[in-house]
Specification:
seven-stranded parallel sheet, 18% strand, three-stranded antiparallel sheet, 13 helices, homodimer, alpha/beta, Rossmann fold
Chain lengths: 327, 327
């Protein structure tokens, strides 16, 4: 079957995919997407990474926030917060504190969650709904949740609390210290239809510049996925999400440190050495290239910060070249 | 304790309550509200009658539609329908066809359902959430769902289908022929805290001009409620929702006929004779007053159509006078 398969988190993966779609036929691209961030918020099934990718590739993402839709309105959430304020419900009060309104769902974005929730309650799988949503937005790549079963990232903070990813990331603004990460449900989850084949049969597998611990980790935790990627190691290239010792977005650097890893490209190389034969790092980290190669990966140095136009497509081309895949 | 307790459905009851609050102290009014119309739509807990009353009494109801909020926007639903149209999902396709978007939830109104759903998932009862929502809107009467347990009106059509109230009323625009009505869950439901006392201790009990079969019926079906109203029969007055042989709103007339009842004030009198000592009917039905009294109820004739300003308050005063309660 060939093509390119991208193991994906949210924002960084979405930007990488946008570039990739400029250099290869969309129908040859499969994104295998993290669902560890998925959550039930106000009773609705929310899949942040799938939606970020969909909205980004549709050109509908809010460019300033980096998540959610451009031109969004917030009437529903304003009303939620009015009730919560009147009832004196705070963000940290109790189980179910999403009532406080800390997870902002835009009015238009709510349409996606309302639809997804209805479809899933009617028996449709997350994969099926994802196809329906993505094709409505005109997407032509294949977007696959890594699993249709519940797989949930759980973070343990140093105070002994169990936090869902959204509690950690959104509610607590990733300002708490993390002692460990686990992926609930992963042991019994099955890869979604097509996931293993997409990795096995791809000309190139790319590990997108996403958080290794909480975005790519849950993808690899689904039984069969890590094995499939390891078997494709020669064709697999990872892009470091750490540039100059810091995450471009989100808490990846801090989290890697808290989990006992180096928060630089060498730390990323150690994380991915068994999975990918190549690590692509940014020019600012060129001095660490030899250390990356000492971890057993070939190191390719290029521009990786996709804020500049054209960098995304060039980065995608570099990744494919690095594992000998045609563009 | 005294006060006035009103057995309530949606629109008609809301208008009656608005008038009542002009003639008695709000803190002396308790509305015991139907929950048989409640539904889970797109995964959200929707309580149409409670919300119609809240929005009406807050002066926030859309005056043209008669339901939902004025100044409402529909961005979320438009997005839902975009997905459904693209996926070819129709209103009658399968279980879970709310994905088609036939139940219109406005963006601001969604805030109410999102909040309610979060609170209930966190363990709050419907009664508790109802207090939180009503007091946020500045309401001072006591608004009680008849039960915190699931009580659901189910309609059987002549084609042998089981329909939820919203499927019948909204999706099918009450254009199907009904063979029977039952109230699922009523046998095991408990009255919400305060419901029985509010009926037992009231100076006056009013059966609001709501659909006897599908609004008041489910209220009476909760164990203990019918007995409490019958015990208060001397102090109980019903307002006919049928005027000139037709329902002012909704399918009450047609439904009464389909269920084998007369669709006029005499039919209403038969329905309520064991519960209320007085039936208030509109002047257009004056000719039937003697027939109403033959059913064993005292008949009071007045203006009952609350579209005209002032009629609501006068109607409330007439009801209280009819059972000797002070205003």
């Amino acid at each position: 079957m060939g093509g390119v398969t991208v193991l994906s988190g949210g924002v960084g993966a979405a930007r990488f995919l946008r570039g990739l779609l400029r250099v290869v036929e969309p129908t040859g691209v499969t994104a295998v997407v993290n669902v560890g961030d998925d959550a039930v918020i106000h009773g609705l099934d929310v899949s942040p990474d799938l939606d970020t990718i969909t909205y980004t590739l549709a050109g509908a993402i809010d460019p300033d926030r980096g998540w959610g839709l451009s031109g969004e309105t917030w009437r529903a959430m304003e009303q939620v917060r009015r009730y919560a304020a009147h009832a004196g419900i705070g963000e940290h009060d109790e189980v179910g504190n999403d009532a406080a309104g800390w997870f902002s769902l835009g009015d238009l974005d709510l349409g996606t969650h309302l639809y997804r929730t209805s479809r899933r309650r009617a028996g449709a799988s997350l994969s099926e709904v994802t196809v329906e949503v993505a094709s409505t937005w005109g997407l032509r790549l294949r977007l696959l949740p890594v699993s249709d079963d519940p797989v949930r990232t759980v973070l343990h903070d140093t105070a002994g609390r169990r936090l869902s990813f959204q509690e950690y990331f959104v509610r607590d603004r990733h300002e708490v210290e993390i002692a460990g990460v686990e992926v609930d449900g992963a042991d019994h989850a099955r890869p979604a239809p097509g996931v293993i084949e997409a990795i096995r049969d791809a000309d190139a597998v790319v590990v997108a510049p996403s958080n290794p611990a909480v975005s790519i980790g849950p993808v690899l935790a689904v039984p069969g996925v890590r094995d499939a990627v390891e078997a494709a190691r020669d064709r697999t290239v990872a892009v470091s999400p750490i540039v100059g010792g810091a995450a471009l977005k989100g808490p990846a650097d801090r989290l890697l440190r808290e989990l006992g890893h180096r928060a630089d490209v060498v730390g990323v190389a150690r994380w991915y050495a068994s999975l990918a034969s190549v690590l692509v790092i940014d020019r600012v980290d060129e001095v660490l290239a030899a250390e990356v190669e000492a971890e057993g990966m070939r190191c390719v140095v290029t521009d990786t910060v996709m804020a500049t136009p054209g960098v995304d497509a060039a980065l995608a081309r570099t990744c494919l070249d690095a594992v000998g895949a045609a563009t």
